Amino acid sequence: MALAVNLLDPHSLIATFGLVGILAVIFAETGLLIGFFLPGDTLLVTAGVFSTTSAATANHISPLPLPALLIGAPLCAIAGAQVGHFLGAKYGRKLFDRPDSRLFRQDHVEKAEHYFNKFGPAKAVVLARFAPVVRTFLNPLAGMLEMSASRFFVFNTIGAVLWTETIILLGRFLGDRVKGIDKYILPVVAVAVLISVIPVIREIIRGPKKPGQGGDGRKTAMPSGRHRR
């Protein structure tokens, strides 16, 4: 029953709401600040597994349509992030100014801002897709720091497609080739998340950029801690 759904359990979400629930969660996790706790990576890899007939049937659910997943997931991820960017541009830092909130913890914001400053706006938007929590908070942060909506859209699209398609197809691949993979979904998700954060880890290992250098290698000026794009 819908009232008994566990929002943190991908199997429960898929069994209750199916494709619509998956797309709604992806939109909320990337577009609404309150959605940062939702299981984005876990849900995508589980959806990929359950797009195979054998895994879906074993769990007493209808197989998820892979084409709809591959089209709908990136579209919802793109739309959600654009909403987040809009909110950040419209409301600015006061959107995050909730010191007594258990949900809007300042360390979440600081982590997102660290990625934004470390990698530069363009690269940060793409890489943040592969970092849970960061991908939720970085979108409004980009709007707050005045990254233009059109420039954000380009890199938002690149990151959304890479993230969603990689995770879904990994789940599909394993669901097709590993019998009973649905019984080991947590280890599968752990591997999927590890693979998804490799781009971020790689950039961190490469070390900090030279002072005044942006994500695309060009020197940038950041007066008063704000990016103008």
Automatic annotation (TrEMBL):
Residue span of region Disordered: 209-229
Domain VTT: 38-172
Keyword Membrane: yes
Chief localisation class: membrane
Membrane topology term: Multi-pass membrane protein
Transmembrane segments: 12-36, 68-88, 152-172, 184-201
InterPro entries xref list: DedA-like, VTT_dom
One of the Pfam families matching this protein, by short name: VTT_dom
Keyword Amino-acid biosynthesis among record annotations: no
Compartments it resides in: Cell membrane
Tree of life domain: Bacteria
Keywords: Cell membrane, Membrane, Transmembrane, Transmembrane helix
Family indicated by similarity: Belongs to the DedA family.
PANTHER family linked to this entry: INNER MEMBRANE PROTEIN DEDA-RELATED, TRANSMEMBRANE PROTEIN
Protein name according to UniProt: DedA family protein
Taxonomic lineage: Bacteria, Bacillati, Actinomycetota, Actinomycetes, Streptosporangiales
